[in-house]
Amino acid sequence: MELILSAGIGALAASGVYLLLRPRTYQVIIGLALLSYAVNLFIFSMGRLRVNAPPVLEPGGAGDLLRYTDPVPQALVLTAIVIGFAMTALFLVVLLASRGFTGTDHVDGREPPRGD
Amino acid sequence: MVTDWLHHLLILPILLPLAVAAVLIPIDERERTLKGAIGFASTLVVFIVTMILMRLAAAGEGSLPGGGVYQLGNWPAPFGIVLVLDRLSALMLCLASGLALAAQAYSMARWHTAGHHFHSLFQLLVAGLNGAFLTGDLFNLFVFFEMMLAASYGLLLHGSGPLRVKAGLHYVAINLAASSLFLIGVSLIYGATGTLNMADLATKLATLAPESRRLVETGAAVLGVAFLVKAGMWPLSFWLPAAYAAATPPVAAVFAILTKVGIYVILRLHMLVFRTAAGASAGFGQDWLLTGGMLTIAFGTIGVLASQAMGRLAAYSVLVSSGTLLAAIGLGRPEMLAGALLYLVSSTLTIAAFFLLIELVERGRDAGADVLAVTMEAYGDFDENEEEEEVGVAIPGTMAILGLCFCLCAILLSGLPPLSGFIAKFALLRGLFNGPEANQAIPISAGDWTYVALLILSGLAAMIALNRVGIRTFWASIEGTIPRVVVIEITPVAILLAACVFLSFQAGPAMRYMQATADDLLAPLVHSERVLSAPRAGGQ
């Protein structure tokens, strides 16, 4: 499980960074989205990987910490997802405004002299 | 009862702007004066509150309500989230809200009409800034940081236009990537130490197992990169001049404090976590800060000399100021801290005033004038014959006032005596050359000498560049019309500069406050103890 998760995070982060460095705004926004998925999974994994362990205590259940997983990273991930989502939406608006002003989707607002 | 009320003052700088921002949104955009008045009143209240908090902090932690610790959910520190006020955060709060007040007054003359929801965004920025300075918790720092950044995206785009949208696109993309790094760093630190509270982190780091220590250091390095992007350390700073030069003047003026947020966090974490208490991790990353800071000064200096437009000149001055502070932290001399803090205050005020002033000066000129001026400099003036006839041309009153402000800015930015720019640089150098005891010389390394040289050269470069621009603008005005300036626009500039002048005359008390702040920072475990042992409100 550790291997699959770390490979997944790695693949997401690598493709995210690659797309972030591309010249088209659409590629950049997809890159940022992939990067934020990778980061969210990474935060999640920092609470250690546990299967079948709830993050909140059950009413009446024994308070044995071994049966529960760390709730803090899950709360952090939730916050990070919300903030990341809002920021991506905001970036989308800026992207559209830029497209409207310059008539191109190049990140520098103008086409390079020869096609890229 | 009174102390109870005083205790709640701690959260007011965050809550009030948040509430006012929400109230302002439904008010119709045509009621600009009303919106401006409400926003200005809110910032004014925040400024007064931060002044009170700073006075309390200056008297020492004992006189602060609740010891300066505000437990948000009334849970004690490592489990609950806390706001922490000490001398450093009080100073930054005061500086930020003062700048915001000046910028907001300036914007009410004309700039707030350039787009929608200016005052709401402005209040959100103030709330985010204050939150970032007050929080004692790494993840909350992220939340306030994002709040501040979200507002700053909106403010940078305020006024619209292709140039701003292009700069905004780059600014948003880079900050989103930096936020990802921020999260990676925070979660690594949490994974290795099991805490997000800064004070708790400082105590835990000393007794950490070696394999976890490596993870914490990696996390701190990743986190540091995120803040260095914000602070504008070379080579992470190429976005900064374009974004700052494209922003509308009041926005650029508050942005002067945004880079200082990055510096504040680095200073705070570095002093709290990686000082002597950190055991094997003591002094982690110091060399990187020193080298990066010095490269930033060099890059900023070249940029200042090469700039043709005043907006870019000011943006590169931001870089020089950041570099000076980063390198001062990197040198790791406790004696330099007080000087660095004074430099931080003085340079932020000056750069903000300069950003506001630029637009007033340039209002009467057409866009091509700067390029033309430089071309004329290179090829000689065309109208040499006419010069003899013009013996003494009366300078219009507006230009005289603007010129005076410009002179003050130039003196402050280049660090010439007698103003606070000089005093701050002098305090930095004195800390570098003198040991803890007065008149005790200590060995000075090659790195120290490089720093001294760069600090002085950057001042020289600022003086040359500002002289060139000043002469072209005020003495040899090319077909310029006199800018129309209203009182509400020049007053904030004058007040910011007056604050610098005041800082020069009151340098003694100011330095005493800075020294006390530095002493606080040098005793991180005392700080941790205070945060962790703060009692819950209302007894048990």
From TrEMBL, chain A:
List UniProt keywords, sorted A-Z: Antiport, Cell membrane, Hydrogen ion transport, Ion transport, Membrane, Transmembrane, Transmembrane helix, Transport
Q: How does it sit in the membrane?
A: Multi-pass membrane protein
State the compartments where it is located: Cell membrane
Query: Would you kindly state one Gene Ontology biological process term found in this protein's UniProt entry?
Result: proton transmembrane transport
Please indicate which superkingdom the organism of origin belongs to. Bacteria
Tagged with keyword Membrane:
yes
InterPro entries annotated for this entry?
Answer: CPA3_antiporter_subunitC (IPR050601), Mnh_C1_su (IPR006673), NUOK/Mnh_C1-like (IPR039428)
Q: Which GO terms describe its cellular component?
A: plasma membrane
GO function terms (MF aspect): antiporter activity; monoatomic cation transmembrane transporter activity
Q: Where would you find the membrane-spanning parts of this chain? A: 26-44, 75-97
Under Pfam families, the record lists: Oxidored_q2
Could you tell me which PANTHER family the record lists for this protein?
ANTIPORTER SUBUNIT MNHC2-RELATED
Homology family: Belongs to the CPA3 antiporters (TC 2.A.63) subunit C family.
Q: What is this protein called?
A: K(+)/H(+) antiporter subunit C
Recorded source organism is: Sinorhizobium americanum
UniProtKB/TrEMBL annotation, chain B:
The protein in question is named K(+)/H(+) antiporter subunit D
Segments forming domain NADH:quinone oxidoreductase/Mrp antiporter transmembrane: 136-434
**Membrane-spanning residues:** 6-25, 37-58, 78-103, 124-149, 169-193, 214-236, 242-267, 288-307, 313-331, 338-358, 400-428, 449-466, 486-505
Which species is listed as the source?
Sinorhizobium americanum
Q: Does the keyword Cell membrane apply?
A: yes
Task: Give the family, as the similarity comment puts it.
Answer: Belongs to the CPA3 antiporters (TC 2.A.63) subunit D family.
Keyword terms, alphabetized: Cell membrane, Membrane, Transmembrane, Transmembrane helix
Taxonomic superkingdom: Bacteria
